[in-house]
Amino acid sequence: MCSVFVQEASYTSMMIEAEGEVITQDAYEYIDDAKAVSPYFLLQQTHLTEPSEAMLEYFADSLQKKNSINAILKLASAVQQSIEYAPGQTNFATTAAQSFAMKSGVCQDHAHIMLSLCRATQIPARYVSGYFFAEESPNLVSHAWIDFCSDIEKGVWVSVDITHACLIDARHIRLAIGRDYYSAAPVKGVRTSGGGEELTANISIQQLA
């Protein structure tokens, strides 16, 4: 179980604080409700995930049209080793192709590249936003990983953390799923007046048990 504290602020001096307890499980497999969106919908690329020819050629040896855990973990490892984790060089609007060209990015870039490659090989995959508890770094920003569909007919999904090249576990706090970052952003809002704004978010996670 983890306690999550989120503090958001903008230069308009408005502050929102939220705190709660989340029960996590050491599980990486999810089964969708029968009324959930079809996995086939998650085969569609988006602006953020559209692959370049250079990407597909570079990862050709790791690409397999198999939605097995071993095959996807092999691909995740290839992405992790090829795209250096380098905060500050990309942002929420950076595409998979752009991050690949720079050979650097953060977790959301790893996720977008992985989504791009899975979908290119006809494996349904979706973006997952959330948090990751690291005992040595409790004050982290949001984290991102992917789900890939291991059984389309039964709606079975397996979660893979590309940044750590592993299946997710009890350290991962799941918030939302979508086609890419835009549809699963952990913090999103709409402003209706003039002027400017700047949003910051501070997150603190503590393990309770």
Structural summary, described in words:
With 209 residues, the protein is of the alpha+beta class. The chain is built from four helices and eleven strands; from the N terminus they run E-E-E-H-H-E-H-E-H-E-E-E-E-E-E. The strands form three sheets. Strands 3, 6, 7, 8, 9 and 10 form a six-stranded antiparallel sheet that branches. The protein has a three-stranded antiparallel sheet with strand order 2-1-11, with no helix packed on it. A two-stranded parallel ribbon has the order 4-5. Helix 3 packs across helix 4. The chain is globular and about 50 Å long. The mean pLDDT is 86.
CATH topology: C8orf32 fold
Strand content: 25-35%
Please, how many domains? 1
Rg from C-alpha positions?
A: 17 Å
Distance between the termini: 6 Å
- Global morphology: globular
Q: SSE order in H/E notation?
A: EEEHHEHEHEEEEEE
Walk me through the topology.
Blueprint: E1 2-9, E2 15-22, E3 29-31, H1 53-58, H2 69-82, E4 84-85, H3 96-102, E5 104-105, H4 107-120, E6 125-132, E7 143-151, E8 156-161, E9 166-167, E10 172-178, E11 200-207
Parallel strand pairs: 4-5
Antiparallel strand pairs: 1-2, 1-11, 3-8, 6-7, 6-10, 7-8, 8-9
Give a short overview.
Helix content is 20%, strand content 30%. It is α+β, with helices and mostly antiparallel strands and 209 residues long. The longest helix is centred in the middle third of the chain and has 14 residues, at 69-82.
Quickly list its features.
209 residues, alpha+beta, C8orf32 fold, six-stranded antiparallel sheet, three-stranded antiparallel sheet, 4 helices, 11 strands
